[in-house]
Specification:
It is a single chain. The protein is of the alpha/beta class. It has two domains: 192 residues, HUPs (Rossmann fold); 81 residues, no CATH class. The strands form two sheets. A six-stranded mixed sheet has the order 3-2-1-4-6-5, with helices on both faces. Strand 2, helix 3 and strand 3 form a beta-alpha-beta unit. The longest helix has 19 residues.
Length: 311
């Protein structure tokens, strides 16, 4: 029998904020702080669950007015079709403006080269940083959380990037009492992480509480996959599988969504929000640790990419 985690928290006082209410309040404060401090903010929106929650919070922060930010997606060309369909539908429903930076266009123009392993996630850095420069974005919202990975664990909510979009941990600023310093020199910008203090379980509990719709790949479904580096990858035109790799149909779902070349699925029969929440509560592996090939290139893979300008 599956024990479902109760997503509605009890408190001693009817006026006390629940854990999720506190996280929501903090994130809404961050969005409004950025709106007051910066001139050209943008939200990174891929159609993954963290960016979906981030957009939901932005809509709440400024309702009934429209969100005063544009959206940006760095499209690798290997994204899941279900996620792209969801992205476009949500953008249309809310009347938002979406900029798409295409990795494929950079490859076609000879500015980037395909990697031997076929993954394009590490190739996102150049399109991202050039889009920031081109549109003069001075604040860039990302859905990164500190529980995901050790490099993200030491990043501030307001993370200063230099004129080359590079991250230097030594330039991180103190953020006492939720006081955020958005000061930056011309050409620099600030990456902003409203979900920094959330966990994967918090995100899913909030999705359940708010009734937020997600792409279907976050729930158990049958899919043709093959094993590589200890993960189940989706078969597709991106370069998998090799002749020596066997495709099989399995009941799986995705805990995190990058692109098809680096995002591993997990065996699961969780078809509902309650079932997913119970599964995550019992898990002893982080979502990126269990499912992201791009984080396994080295012990410092994420930090190296962040220093170069990655998310």
């Amino acid at each position: 029998m599956t024990t479902v985690v109760n997503v509605h928290e009890a408190t001693d006082s009817p006026f006390a904020l629940s854990h999720l209410d506190s996280l929501e309040s903090e994130a809404v404060h961050i969005f409004r702080e950025v709106a007051g401090e910066f001139e050209r903010p943008v939200i990174l929106f891929s159609g993954g669950k963290d960016s979906i929650v981030m957009l939901h919070l932005a809509l709440k922060a400024f309702a009934p007015a429209p969100v005063p930010f544009t959206l940006l997606h760095v499209d690798t060309g290997h994204n899941f079709p279900e996620v792209l369909e969801y992205r476009d539908r949500v953008v249309a429903e809310h009347g938002l403006r979406l900029h798409v930076a295409s990795v494929q266009e950079y490859i076609d123009a000879g500015k980037l080269r395909e990697r031997p392993d076929g993954t394009r996630n590490p190739l996102q850095t150049v399109p991202l940083t050039e889009a920031i420069q081109q549109h003069r974005f001075d604040a860039v919202f990302g859905g990164g959380r500190r529980d995901e990975e050790k490099a993200r664990a030491k990043e501030r909510v307001f993370s200063l990037r230099d004129e080359f979009s590079q991250w230097d941990p030594r330039r991180q600023r103190p953020e006492l009492w939720q006081l955020y310093n958005g000061r930056h020199a011309p050409g620099e910008h600030v990456r902003v992480f409203p979900l920094s203090n959330w966990t994967e379980l918090d995100v899913w509990q909030y999705i359940a509480r708010e009734g937020i719709e997600l792409p279907e790949i976050y729930f158990a479904h049958e899919r043709e996959v093959f094993a590589r580096s200890g993960m189940w990858l989706t078969a597709g035109e991106w370069g998998g599988p090799k002749d020596t790799e066997t495709v099989e149909k399995r009941l799986i779902r995705y805990r995190t969504v990058g692109d098809m070349s680096c995002t591993g699925a997990v065996d699961s029969d969780a078809t509902t929000l309650d079932a997913v929440i119970a599964e995550i509560a019992a898990s002893r592996l982080t979502e990126r640790g269990a499912t992201r090939a791009d984080d396994k290139m080295s012990e410092a893979a994420m930090e190296d990419r962040k220093r170069e300008g990655y998310f």
